Amino acid sequence: MSYLRVVGLVAAKDLRTELRSREQAVSLLVFALLILVVFHFAFDVTVPDFTAFGPGMLWVAFTFSGVLALNHAFRIEREQDRIDGILSAPIDRSAFYLGKVLSTVIFMAAVEVVLVPLAAILFNRAFDGRLALTAAALLLNLVGFAAVGTLFAAVTTATRRSEMLLPLLLFPAAVPIALAAVRTTGHLLAGRPFERFAHWVWLSVAYDLIFLAVAVLLFDFAIDE
Amino acid sequence: MMPGMLERLLLLAATLLIPVAIRMAFVLAPTEGKMGEVQRIFYFHVPSAEMAFLGVGLSALFSVVYLYGRRRLVDVMAEAAAELGCLFCTIVLVTGPIWARPIWGVWWTGEVRLTSTLVLWLILVGYLLLRQSAADREQAARWGAIAAIVGALDMPIIYKSVEWWRGLHPKVLKISGGGGLDPVMGQALLVSSLAFLLLFAVLFMARVRLGLLEEEAESLARAVDRRAATAGGAPAGGVS
Fold first, then answer.
1. Of A19, A48, A66, A198, which is most buried, counting CB atoms within 10 Å of its CB?
2. How far is CA B17 from CA A59, B44, B53, B197, in A?
3. Does the residue B158 lie in any domain?
4. A179 touches chain B (CB under 8 A)
């Protein structure tokens, strides 16, 4: 079985499970929306503020719901020791890792696809015109977040304190991604040219590549038991 | 025994050098013109930062070596280095604001070194908490190695991102702010760095020795458990 096919199969398995049970998509989305509503009340955000603070608020909502998604991604494997089945299968473990990254990215992207328009309504500010670029920027940063998050989630879900441990490890490590995401979206919202924030995009690209490679090398050690 | 000898020698050297460093920092080095006495905190702040980075670097290095060879000793060394990194990082975070308050007028700003040091501290604390949550030493070692390697590789990227986030930032941390750096100041900083390095080495060796003793105690406790189990008695206490 080819490597990429394994990656696809693992992701497809997760998506199929989710489509059948629908246990997490709804709760993730409602949770993320709730964060935006809390911000809306807490800071009494007006329309011009959203250009300045919107990207940050959105990214807080994404990362917090992302941690839930990451915890879930490995909890379903740890339940009833399903992970043993996967580990004993004749597949490359890094392919399993990449499949998990892929399904996490798809889940989080799905949340964003719904959340961004809702935020635009809630804060009366449209992402006018540069929708494709904004989506690409969010996706780029999602990959970095999921790359490190999946590696750490594989480790933390083996403990009983994963809800605490995963954000504790992931948030500091994901600082560059969070900053790059917020700045890139901010520049896009303000309608500035690409040259103004190109360095942030390259930072995200570098982060994605470095940590995907590192995680592929280290994943074996994260689950080898 | 050689390791014990080395540790004692280092301890002796540290005991001799630390008072010299303190004297140079508080008495021999001239008072800085613009900042006044508070500038002397640099002789402790800067070496602490150096030791924090040394701890993180060593921990990541030992982690890579551990994942290759799975030697217990190497993991104990990785953990000791990370703990010391965390300790010195805490000192940096405490002494920094003490200096910043009279000089910058604020305890804390979003300045790049402050922010990235805080993130580094959080990464180190996460590393230590992760190790504590592991079921056994082998798991703690593997997990810790992953966290240490990711954290160390992340540091330059975090630094760069925080730097860009803030835009322009003043190069205030240059001692005495450009101009003529008094040679005694440079010497005091050098001696102090050396004293901190010796302190780091002494603490490191003591911590490694302690780690090995912990392991021995655990394996002895396990042996007692096994013997009690085979003798049909109740286990003599779990492994902590």
1. A66
2. 50, 14, 22, 10
3. yes
4. yes
The whole-chain average pLDDT of chain A stands at: 87
- B174: closest CA among B195, B189, B155, B193? B189
Q: What is the pLDDT of residues B100-129, one digit of tens each?
A: 888 888 888 877 888 889 999 999 999 999
Residues 6+ apart with CB under 8 A from B223: none
What distance in Å separates the CA atoms of residue A167 and residue A33, rounded to the nearest whole number?
19
Domain boundaries, chain A: 3-223
Here the tokens at position B97 are 């604001």
Set of chain A residues whose Cβ sits within 8 Å of the Cβ of B139: 158, 225
Report ipTM for this prediction.
Answer: 0.89
Q: Which of the four pLDDT bands, split at 50, 70 and 90, describes residue B144?
A: very high
Q: Which residues, numbered 138 to 177 in chain A, qualify as contacts with chain B under a Cβ-Cβ cut-off of 8 Å?
A: 148, 151-152, 155-156, 158-161, 165, 168-169, 171-173, 175-176
For chain B positions 148-167, those within 8 Å of chain A (CB to CB) are 149-151, 153-154, 157-158, 160-162, 164-165
User: Does the residue B144 lie in any domain?
Assistant: yes
Residue A19 distance to chain B (closest CA, Å) = 32
Taking the Cβ of residue B128 and every Cβ of chain A, the question of whether any pair is shorter than 8 Å is answered with no
B119 touches chain A (CB under 8 A): yes
| Contact between B132 and B66 (Cβ < 8 Å) | no
Contacts of A46 (CB under 8 A, 6+ apart): none
Structural domain containing residue B74? 42-169+181-224
Q: What is the pLDDT of residue B119?
A: 93
Q: How close is the nearest chain B Cα to the Cα of A26, in Å?
A: 30
Say if residue B147's pLDDT is above 90: yes
> Is B135's Cβ below 8 Å from some Cβ in A?
yes
- What is the average pLDDT across B67-75? 92
Structural domain includes residue B29: no
Give the nearest partner residue to B67 out of A159, A183, A221, using CB atoms: A221
Instruction: Write out pLDDT tens, residues B179-208.
Output: 456 788 888 889 999 999 999 999 999 999
State whether A203 and B157 contact (CB < 8 Å).
Answer: yes
On chain B, the residues whose CB falls within 8 A of the CB of A199 are 164
Closest by alpha carbon to A64, among A20, A30, A98, A99? A30
Beta carbons of A175 and B161 less than 8 Å apart: yes
Q: How many domains does chain B have?
A: 1
Query: Model-level pTM greater than 0.95?
Result: no
User: Over 50: is that where the pLDDT of A33 sits?
Assistant: yes
